[in-house]
Amino acid sequence: MSGSETGPGSQNESKSTYPKRRRTVQQVLQVPDTSSQAEESGDDNDDVSSVTSTEDCSDSPNVMRKRPRGKPRKCKLQFRCTNFLKEDHGQPIFGIQFNYNTKEGYPINFATVGGNRVTIYECLKEGKLKVVQAYIDADTQENFYTCAWTYEDVSGQALLAVAGSRGIIRIISPTTMQNIKHFVGHGNSVNELKFHPRDPNMLLSVGKDHSLRLWNIKTDFCVAILGGVDGHRDEVLSADFNIDGSRVMSCGMDHSLKLWNMNEMITNAMTLSYNYDVSKIKKTFPTVRNHFPDFSTRDIHRNYVDCVRWFGDFVLSKSCENCIICWKAGSLDQDLDTIKHTNTEVSIIHRFDYKDCDIWYMRFSLDYWQKILALGNQVGRLYVWDLDCNDPTQTRCTTLVHPKCYSAIRQTHISRDGNILIAVCDDATLWRWDKFK
Amino acid sequence: MGDDILDKDGQFIEELIKNYDGKVHGDREGITIDDDVFVDLVKNLHKTFIAELDDTQKEANAIIIKFPPDIIFESVVATFSDKCSTDDLKEKYRELTEYNDPNMLPPECTPNIDGPNAISVPREQTMHSFHTLFCRRCFKYDCYLHPYHPTPSMTLRKPTEAKSDNTPCGPDCFLHKENTKEQELLNSKSSPKGKKRKTSNSSMSETLSKDGDTMSTGKSSDDVEWTGAEESLYRCLHDVFCNNHCAISSLIKTKTCSQVCSFALKEASHTPEVGSDKDKTPPRKKPKKKHRLWYNHCRKVNLKKDSTSNHIFNYQPCDHPGQPCDESCPCIMAQNFCEKFCQCNTDCKNRFPGCRCKAQCNTKQCPCFLAVRECDPDICSTCGADKFDTKKISCKNVSIQRGMRKHLLLAPSDIAGWGIYIMEGCDKNYFISEYCGEIISQDEADRRGKVYDKYMCSFLFNLNNDFVVDATRKGNKIRFANHSINPNCYAKVMMVNGDHRIGIFAKRPILTGDELFFDYRYGPTEQLKFVGIERDIDLSAS
After folding, report:
1. A345 and B34: CB-CB below 8 Å?
2. Angle at CA of residue A150, ends A144 and A152, nearest 5°
3. Count of CB atoms within 10 A of residue B164's CB?
């Protein structure tokens, strides 16, 4: 509550508020007419000249650091804006995710969600973008906030999960162009979706109802609910699995970050969810309810924490205080398995500073190999950090600017090969930046 | 949104921070460090300090080598402004570094008598946890609802009537060996109801007389080593069972009753005789109140109901040994009845007498119902409140304590947000559910209420003058019942076995699937803020 007033009031409105009256009918996604599918990307020509400014790290907005001696090292990352387009709904686009599950040689796809629309694009050569499919929710009040790709474990076909203000998670199959299932359970909007890195059927959703839910999307059971007595005390804004899926770190409006280990109870429930036969057992699935996280801290940020990602055993998280903080639970040499819920110690490793990002629900992203960190701010500037070095203080930052890009960049994502970076904005625009040597 | 909104919010935030003494977000101003960090810091400072001493100084000040000098603690205090003195920090450091053995107990703790380190201790020490931490009202240890308040009568135990069984427990039972001087000694100390001694054959009587030195096997088995655990356990059981050695031995299990008997003799010679406390409290028998007294009491109950005072105070068991419950009794001052948990005499005039109804206790004829109390299973014996099987209880005034709630369903409300619907129909005045939540003080409720008002959503429910129930973070389904000016339910704060609890009852017959509402009883200003939506709907519907 105390944090919501940091930005100007109007900017807080960019994230839709929960409408007061409920809707009565369950909606089904429809596919619009196919004429738009083969079209090329919207408005503009492809080769917009890039206005990339590569800055030395000492000039980047970090007042605390000293100027390094010797010749300044240039950031090796260079991007050029190759395309931008505007989605016709005009609503803020809140999410963009590349599909990391496609094999090499196959076309690179990504999905964007904004308003009640889900759009799937394909990246073509020379910066071209092609709209492959678009879905629209029949409920005009729905506002999608997040999406995540997975694949069907038998056929390997891609699946896309989307969710938003209504709190209903939808699974779309682009192959059959249908909304194949939906999950109801969250008491309010869903703020983020993540799939388990090892199990393509386990979906983690976090919501405005202060809880995290783990779903088995193959057998449709809710495997676990994380939250309650010691859970988040306000909206959960983001969560992330670590690299092997054994831990979840979540963060929210209560300024806290909480670590939830996927303990034996939960892994057993995950296994059980595949074999549970409701017709034989005649009881509802025993969803695990975990009220107690394995670690919790409010000492990293002093405002809403709206994005969190694991970085090995470290955690990268940001609030609306113009800083991404890399930190570790416990002391620096302490093994994460030995952390107890009574531990209060955290070790701050590094701070990435930037400017003009005081509104909440602005997400950063890491590329597939966790070497690039990208974040857009509320005036359309993109910060890209090169993390490929041993010393955190040696990270270099690039800012990517385009004169026509002045709206808040809600999320960014980098393709699996690291060559394409897409940013999506509040004015329904989408920006493609390609890496060049 | 304009600047005026920002200013109002800014003011709100400042008030909030003031309410919480500036501690809304951790303690950044006065940097307090963790214990581990503190020990680390002092250790490292100590090391550098020693390293800088030259050899001569080291020899001279051997103490400083062992324990950090004062200057280190003074500088820590100066840097961290920890609001404590140098001496406090020294003590703290000493405590933290001396705590080596994780198995070592803190000095006041008695080792577990079931554990390997059990020692032989007097009864008070073994029973200390039980007496101080066990909550008789919740029947568990360390209950959250009734924090520990030591009262004078805490450690006294009311002695039961010792019923000694005269039948021997087995072939080796000590009762076979009797007519000893020791036996007589023991028996004279026990309750007035003396045992009848069986006369046995003279051959058996040989085995006893002196301290068991005739029969070789008897002697050696009777004089075995008693472990600390067994001794402590014996002392606790002795108070309950007096000289019923058979019962005591069957509980201790590792000692036969004859061994218990010989130990008892040793104990009896060591410990002085404890004066019987029986004189202080009369034997427990049902008070046979005369009809006149009953009538007077019921009238007093009625008068209490009509009194204008609206302040209901939380019940605390009263404890004033030696004095009857008069104006200085806490129960009397709070205008509460004494309950069975009070340490006063069972004849106390302020005790609620319970009801003698044969019917369902749901009319004003029942004194419990009239006094807005639930029937007490220990006192109200005729109405069926003490029956175990909930399906067979005839008393309808025990619903809260038995948890006999209706099946409720959660779904989006017709009015606002979520609503609660009843699955089975019910008649007027039937119990629906208890309004459960966190019990917080009035001050804490004021602090939380300010934030909840901003959200336009509050689950606070006034319980009594001291406490408030807050169902925001913890609660049950009935918290989703919305407010209505024309509700179908009402709420009642009832006294249930010493605790105030909120019950939601039906105001009129309710059909299956109806949404439940009750009157939140807001003041006139809040009515306008919160009920606006309902009025709109009414207008649009009409």
Report:
1. yes
2. 125
3. 17
> In 3D, which of B373, B394, B391, B417 has the Cα closest to residue B534?
B417
Please report the DSSP string for A32-63 in residue order. Answer: --GGGTTPBPSSS-S-PPPEEEE--TTTSS-T
As a whole number of angstroms, the distance between CA B264 and CA B231 comes to: 10
ipTM: 0.71
Mean pLDDT of chain B: 75
At B314-342, the pLDDT tens digits run: 998 888 888 888 888 888 888 889 999 88
d(CA A111, CA A117): 10
- Is A426 within 8 Å of A407 (Cβ atoms)? yes
pLDDT of B198 > 50? The answer is no
What is the spatial distance between Cα B280 and Cα A250, in angstroms, rounded to a whole number? Answer: 61
Helix (H, G, I), strand (E, B) or coil at A190: strand
B contacts of A4 (beta carbons < 8 Å): 9
CA torsion A400→A406→A410→A413, rounded to 10°? -30
Helix (H) / strand (E) element for B411: namely strand B408-412
How many angstroms separate the CA atoms of B442 and B463, rounded? 10
Chain B residues with CB-CB distance to A302 below 8 A: 25
Residue B285 sits at the chain A interface (C-beta within 8 Å): no
Query: Mind listing the pLDDT tens digit for each residue in A210-226?
Result: 999 999 999 999 999 99
Contact at 8 Å (CB) between A304 and A252?
A: yes
The token duo for A65 is 């650091």
Interchain contact, A20 vs B451, CB within 8 Å = no
One DSSP character per residue, B482-505 reads: EE-SS-SEEEEEEEETTEEEEEEE
The pTM assigned to this predicted structure is: 0.74
> Looking at CA atoms only, how far is residue B100 from chain A in angstroms?
20
d(CA B285, CA B228): 38
- Indicate the residue type of B421: Y
What is the predicted pLDDT for the residue at B165? 61
Contact B357, B329 (CB under 8 A): no
Question: What backbone phi and psi angles, to 5 degrees, belong to B40?
Answer: -55, -45
Q: State both tokens at B305.
A: 């109901």
How far apart (Å, rounded) are the C-alpha atoms in residues B278 and B457? Answer: 56
**Is A291 near chain B, with CB under 8 Å?**
no
B23 touches chain A (CB under 8 A): no
Distances (CA, A) of B254 to A9, A335, B226, B233, B244: 76, 47, 10, 11, 16
Torsion of CA B91, B97, B102, B103, to 10 degrees: -60
For B493, list phi and psi in degrees, rounded to 5.
-90, 115
Residue type, A325: I
**Placement of tokens 């004829």 in the chain:** B365
Burial of B319 (0-12, 13-18, 19+ CB in 10 A): middle
Express each pLDDT in A345-375 by its tens digit: 899 999 999 999 999 999 999 999 999 999 9
* DSSP classification of residue B367: H
The answer to whether residue A19 neighbours chain B at the CB level (below 8 Å) is: no
Cα distance between residue B448 and residue B376, in whole Å: 34
CB B533 within 8 A of CB B499: no
Tokens standing for B332? 């009397």
